[in-house]
Specification:
This protein is α/β, with parallel strands linked by helices. It folds into two domains: 7-55 and 367-414, Urease, subunit C, domain 1, CATH 2.30.40; 57-340, Metal-dependent hydrolases (TIM Barrel, Alpha-Beta Barrel). 34% of the residues lie in helices and 19% in strands. The protein contains 14 helices and 16 strands. It has helices at 81-92, 97-113, 131-142, 165-175, 190-206, 225-235, 255-268, 276-282, 298-303, 327-337, 343-348, 355-360, 384-390, 412-419, and strands at residues 7-11, 19-25, 28-35, 45-47, 53-54, 57-62, 116-124, 148-154, 179-180, 210-215, 242-246, 271-274, 307-310, 376-378, 396-399, 402-406. The strands form three sheets. The chain has an eight-stranded parallel sheet. Strands 3-2-1-4 form a four-stranded mixed sheet, with no helix packed on it. The chain has a four-stranded antiparallel sheet with strand order 5-14-15-16, with no helix packed on it. α2 crosses α3, α5 (190-206) runs parallel beside α6 (225-235) and α6 (225-235) packs parallel to α7. The longest helix is centred in the N-terminal third of the chain and has 17 residues, at 97-113. The protein is globular, with a radius of gyration of 22 Å. The structure holds 5-methylcytosine (17E) and fe (ii) ion (FE2). 5-methylcytosine is lined by residues 63, 81, 156, 183, 214, 217, 278, 313-314, 319.
Amino acid sequence: MTDCLNAVINARLQGRDGLYSLAIENGRFGAITSQSAELKALHNQLDAAGNLVTPAFVEPHIHLDAAMTAGEPRWNQSGTLFEGIECWGERKATLTRDDVIGRAEQTLRLFAAHGIQYVRTHVDVTDPQLTALQAMLEVKERVSGYVDLQIVAFPQEGIWSFRNGRELMEEAVRLGADVVGGIPHFEHTRDDGVASVRWLVELAQRHDLLVDVHCDEIDDPGSRFLEVLAAEALKLDYGSRVTASHTCAMGSYNDAYCSRLFRLLKMSGLRFLCMPTESLHLQGRFDGYPKRRGLTRVPELLDAGLKVAFGQDSIRDPWYPMGNGNMLRTLDSGLHACHMLGMNWIDRSLELITDNGAAALHLQQYGIAEGLPARCVVLQGQTPYEVLLNQRPVVASVRDGQILVQRAAEDPMAALNNTLVSV
Ligand code: 17E
Ligand code: FE2
């Protein structure tokens, strides 16, 4: 255990000019003061060297129970969500506690190395033994020194459409799940999907839990469960605690319907999560050309004042064979796919992997401000644009005043000059 820091100095903060010192007292931020010039670091001070410092990254949507199982027992060759669910069903039958704990912790260490300190994981509870859920509850305790983990009771094969689906969801809540999930677009009928959404929001409210539904993760413009989720959230005044994940079908809705839908979304205050790399890979699979991107309407939701964050969804699992834990890669892909490389979007883009993820997770103590837990990351770059250009990993991650991660800064020009042999 390293000594507690007493300050981060030479920090650049988003939306503010100049350099700042962030005092740290008892693991919390103290005064944040403007510096007139670059300071020399004293003992127990972390020197941000003029780089951007942001709150620690949030991974709001990942499936840790399936992480690192790509190719087991077979590869998803079609690249569809549905073959992914089949492959996972085969792998799920062989899960053990140690298997889940080992892969989940390996993945969380990878995340920690990339400055992620808050994670929401979906855990498949369509398993009569609830093996993965019980293991993940243990993981949550084991990793609490470096990551805050929220667990979603996620009914991968449906609530209505899986034997004892409701009982398994209720058991998962009883065992300690933090968030109630759902998958209405995968239920056997539209009516079952609607019934499942109403039921799961009510279950969450009864137990004072959050909601995060895999909602309309399909290119079918007729998949309209988002309106049901938003209407339920509005009716129960629960919107800030309800997240709609994926909503891929919104990329296929017609504009007239969307115009009506957005009115409801704004009234409901729902949170949105888009998983750009995952949806680019899984969606559009039933299209010839032109081929859809399969993403929700990210800039339009942001323009409407709604909170949208990006997540990775998968790390080398039956749905997606790639992933390296670096949220800057996800952010880069998402900005490309959503037509958000205008400088106005780039300038505010880090909110998609920080503040908006924190809003989805309903975090109450998040940010860089006096009195909040001293959790932050030092990025490689002075502006979001510089950070995104090279997607270099964080140089430091600080949690409650302790340094969790520290690595040498990379100088891309020096690296280039050392590489070019006779140019
Ligand atoms: N399960 C699902 O229904 N959708 C996904 N994108 C993943 C798992 C990764
Ligand atoms: Fe997912």
